[in-house]
Amino acid sequence: MKLLVDVGNTALKLALYKNDEITFISQHEVNWQDINQVLIASVRSNQQLDYLISDANERGVEVITAKVSAEHNGISCAYQQFRNLGIDRWLVVLAAAHLYAGQSAIIVDAGTATTVDVLVEGKTHQGGWIIPGIDLMMESITSRAEKVFASEQVSFENAVGINTPEALSYGCLAASLGLVAQARHLFSDNIRVLCTGGYGKLLSDHLENSEFIEDLVLRGLVAYAK
Questions:
Q1: Residue 11: its pLDDT value, please?
Q2: How far apart (Å, rounded) are the C-alpha atoms in residues 68 and 124?
Q3: Using an 8 Å Cβ cutoff, are 174 and 167 in contact?
Q4: Rounded to 5, what percent of the chain is helix, strand, coil?
Q5: Angle, helices 87-99/216-225, rounded to nearest 10 degrees
Q6: What are the φ and ψ backbone dihedral angles of 162, each rounded to 5 degrees?
Q7: Are strands 192-196 and 124-132 parallel, antiparallel or unpaired?
Q8: Residues designated catalytic
Q9: In angstroms, rounded to a whole number, what is the distance separating the alpha carbons of residues 183 and 105?
Q10: How many Å apart are CA 133 and CA 29, to the nearest integer?
Q11: What is the 3-state secondary structure (H, E, C) of 21-90?
Q12: Which of 201, 209, 160, 216 lies closest to 184 in space, CA to CA?
């Protein structure tokens, strides 16, 4: 059984992988007797991760930390300086290539930042975009514009706002959806969209030919190790 570790900008997630199934767990549920390999995707240093690596090393469990490369299993990276691409972005590209072999896809990871990456014919990463995530967009405006304010009573809708909190919330959603629309304009109107991250379900619900995959980074981690 494999222990999958995803260290994002705001949280660390753990999951078990066995028989092509991924099950999210908490750290106290880790049973080292059942684990023969640890696969790690990390965008930053993390003390909890350090403890996990130490525990694995003490038990002689293999630890693999995913790294970006110019090419992996026939999938090419668009970045000439490929090490500058975030490992989370690389892994969702690998996941898309693995889940939908030979097909093109737009991959959206909507978390602290919202990233969009384009994969063509399941083998060529064309690059992508990074913008502030929805929460960060809202915080950046309300912290700098005295008369712009949010409300917890306002949800996100694909509509125009008729008051300030609605204009803010709806506008941040529209900006994120517009990013995907622009990617489709550049590549193909019918291209499949795969969404993940904290706001991935929200975006997917407002996009045609779209799918929300909560564990997409972890799926990419498994594909990386094959």
A1: 84
A2: 14
A3: no
A4: 35, 30, 35
A5: 80
A6: -115, 15
A7: unpaired
A8: 88
A9: 10
A10: 31
A11: EEEEECHHHCCHHHCCEEEEEECCCCHHHHHHHHHHHHCCCEEEECCCCCEECCEECCCCCHHHCCHHHH
A12: 209
DSSP state, residue 157? -
Give the whole-angstrom CA distance, residue 10 versus residue 180: 24
Measure the CA–CA gap between 68 and 83, rounded to whole angstroms.
6
Say which DSSP state 93 is in: H
DSSP β-ladder status, 12-18 and 21-25: antiparallel
pLDDT digits (tens, 9 = 90+) for 131-184: 999 999 999 999 999 899 999 999 999 999 999 999 999 999 999 999 999 999
Cα angle: 24, vertex 226, 60; to 5 degrees: 70
Packing angle of the helix pair 134-142, 164-186 (nearest 10 deg):
130
Token output for 43: 């965008």
Whole-model pTM?
0.93
Q: For residue 4, is pLDDT > 90? A: yes
Which structure tokens are listed for 159?
């509509």
Instruction: Pull the structure tokens for residue 102.
Output: 């030979």
What is the CB-side half-sphere exposure of residue 212 using CA atoms within 13 A? 13
Tokens of 93: 């590209």
Cα–Cα distance list, 23 to 180, 214, 216 (Å) = 29, 11, 13
H or E stretch covering 150:
none
What token pair was written down for 58? 């003490």
